[in-house]
Amino acid sequence: xxxxxxxxxxxxxxxxxxxxxxxxxxxxxxxxxxxxxxxxxxxxxxxxxxxxxxxxxxxxxxxxxxxxxxxxxxxxxxxxxxxxxxxxxxxxxxxxxxxxxxxxxxxxxxx
Amino acid sequence: xxxxxxxxxxxxxxxxxxxxxxxxxxxxxxxxxxxxxxxxxxxxxxxxxxxxxxxxxxxxxxxxxxxxxxxxxxxxxxxxxxxxxxxxxxxxxxxxxxxxxxxxxxxxxxxxx
Lengths: 111, 113
Hints:
The complex is a heterodimer.
Chain A: E1 4-6, E2 11-14, E3 19-25, E4 32-38, E5 44-50, E6 55-57, E7 60-65, E8 70-75, E9 84-91, E10 99-101, E11 105-110
Parallel strand pairs in A: 2-11
Antiparallel strand pairs in A: 1-3, 3-8, 4-5, 4-9, 6-7, 7-8, 9-10, 9-11
Chain B: E1 5-7, E2 10-13, E3 19-24, E4 31-37, E5 43-50, E6 53-57, E7 65-68, E8 75-79, E9 88-95, E10 103-104, E11 108-112
Parallel strand pairs in B: 2-11
Antiparallel strand pairs in B: 1-3, 3-8, 4-5, 4-9, 5-6, 7-8, 9-10, 9-11
């Protein structure tokens, strides 16, 4: 089983729509969770950390379900600039700094 | 906003040659990392570095690889004898404290001929 698994997409979504991405992780001891976005041939950029209680940042909402080892990202009112690959990222243990990346989900917002 | 900077942006090297990739982490950060991304694949962890020593390394980070913080600002990745399969995008990252999010530089594209 892959350590961090995501649907690779692509998701082609009209502008203004709501889109949701899911991610599962295999290590139940994982402690920290993030969503990064990556534009074509660019570096990963932190979008948001994911907290157990769920958290929101503007149009973006992240949820964590530890029991199911499942992370989600919801984007509301999608904009053309949201087109990117969204990376689900997990850090396993306190004191272990290694980030484990999913393969990413590609999103294209259509005008 | 402070950022991680990497040089060069693109490095072309003959197989078997040594290459050094350079990074300047964010100035007050203490934890430093190298990752790589082969074209079309996921980002993979190589090594983490704290307090002037390696704190963790992956299976990819074999004896051909080394890291160094030669002064107070630079963090380098050296590949001693490059192979074709070392061709990838190499990202440096840094974080301020343990468990804080890591911020990535814009990468060095390494092409081995």
